């Protein structure tokens, strides 16, 4: 539930509350028990790899963006429904959307870390999934996490209306597919050792990282009710934050160490990957991230929403983070 504007808003407290709910839901849904309704339960070794990939680590920025956007728009009116019933229904949709987008993110990390892609051995401060479970199990775990994400978005219609299920699935599929995250990763792999222009680099980052972050905002908004003006402004916010996140990642790859990052530092430079730091230099890349933050905050002001403090706080966190 949103915080009254008459009350002081503490981002850390808000994040703590949201993470508690999201972590509990992920623990429940990524489990053998969650498949008990099926004729055959998931193999225990596969589920262990899936849980290893998802639980006990990560910033959960994408679920937080879902919940923050949902809270900002959730008080729209729907004729024929009490507000308490409406909020309960939308809250269930938002929680499923938050967990679904995190599962897609987790699957992408599992696959990106494999030897055929980025060949990383450290993720979220622990060995990557293919190191801990083997390449075949890591591949299957990623596949299963992707499928589970869409299963979460398609419960019985009594839980979530079919039209809303379809809308959320479309938003997530487009962000994760060939014109989103997967397409961006393909460009990234093909660009090793090349000198990209700023527009080419921005397009790669917009797809590889930005698309899923933008979709997180829009999936949260899709769980409530918005005008066209509000929807478009939130989309601008999500696009700016999505690009800013990757620019800051490029900066941190140069300035932070592996322990702080929880993943291998300096990997982009070692792999001869084009980044905003290699293109602009460290100071200009940092300044560009701050410019994107201002663009995001300006877009929030144009949403017409009464309380966007959680989204504002997350925008600040994205750009000002040190890991």
* Alpha-beta classification: mainly alpha
Query: Biggest β-sheet, characterized?
Result: 2 strands, antiparallel
Q: Which runs of at least 5 residues are low in confidence (pLDDT < 50)? A: 76-83
| Anisotropy-based shape | globular
Rg calculated over all Cα atoms? 19 Å
Distance between the termini: 29 Å
Tell me how many strands there are.
Answer: 2
Number of helices: 15
Give the proportion of residues in helices.
55-70%
Within the largest sheet, what's the order of strands? 1-2
- Report the β-strand fraction as a percent range: under 5%
- Average of per-residue pLDDT values: 89
Question: Would you write up a description of this structure?
Answer:
With 323 residues, the chain is mainly alpha-helical. 68% of the residues lie in helices and 1% in strands. The protein has 15 helices and two strands. It has helices spanning 11-29, 44-54, 61-73, 83-112, 129-133, 135-152, 162-176, 181-190, 198-222, 228-255, 258-261, 267-270, 276-280, 282-301, 309-320; strands at residues 122-123, 126-127. The protein has a two-stranded antiparallel sheet. A hairpin with a 2-residue loop joins β1 (122-123) and β2 (126-127). The longest helix has 30 residues, at 83-112. It is globular.
Topology:
Layout: H1 11-29, H2 44-54, H3 61-73, H4 83-112, E1 122-123, E2 126-127, H5 129-133, H6 135-152, H7 162-176, H8 181-190, H9 198-222, H10 228-255, H11 258-261, H12 267-270, H13 276-280, H14 282-301, H15 309-320
Antiparallel strand pairs: 1-2
Helix pairs in contact: 1-4, 2-6, 3-4, 3-9, 3-15, 4-6, 4-7, 4-9, 7-9, 8-9, 9-10, 10-14, 10-15, 14-15
């Amino acid at each position: 539930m949103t915080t009254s504007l008459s009350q002081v808003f503490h981002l850390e407290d808000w994040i703590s509350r949201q993470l508690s709910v999201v972590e509990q839901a992920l623990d429940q849904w990524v489990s053998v028990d969650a498949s008990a309704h099926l004729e055959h339960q998931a193999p225990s070794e596969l589920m262990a790899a899936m849980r290893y990939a998802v639980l006990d680590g990560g910033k959960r920025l994408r679920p937080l963006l879902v919940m923050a956007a949902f809270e900002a728009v959730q008080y729209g009116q729907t004729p024929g429904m009490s507000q308490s019933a409406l909020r309960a229904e939308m809250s269930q949709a938002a929680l499923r959307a938050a967990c679904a987008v995190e599962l897609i993110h987790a699957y992408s990390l599992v696959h990106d870390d494999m030897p055929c892609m980025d060949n990383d051995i450290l993720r979220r401060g622990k060995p990557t999934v293919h190191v801990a479970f083997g390449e075949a199990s890591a591949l299957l775990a990623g596949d299963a996490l992707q499928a589970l994400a869409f299963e979460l978005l398609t419960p019985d219609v009594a839980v979530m209306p079919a039209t809303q299920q379809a809308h959320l699935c479309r938003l997530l599929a487009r962000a994760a597919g060939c014109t989103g995250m997967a397409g961006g990763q393909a460009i990234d792999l093909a660009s090793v050792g090349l000198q990209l222009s700023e527009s080419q680099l921005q397009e790669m980052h917009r797809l590889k990282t930005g698309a899923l972050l933008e979709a997180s905002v829009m999936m949260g908004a899709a769980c409530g009710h918005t005008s066209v003006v509000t929807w478009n402004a939130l989309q601008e916010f999500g696009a700016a934050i999505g690009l800013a996140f990757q620019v800051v990642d490029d900066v941190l790859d140069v300035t932070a160490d592996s322990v702080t990052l929880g993943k291998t530092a300096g990997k982009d430079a070692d792999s001869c990957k084009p980044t905003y730091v290699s293109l602009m230099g460290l100071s200009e890349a940092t300044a560009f991230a701050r410019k994107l933050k201002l663009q995001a905050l300006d877009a929030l002001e144009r949403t017409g929403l009464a309380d966007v403090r959680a989204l504002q706080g997350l925008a600040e966190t994205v750009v000002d983070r040190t890991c």
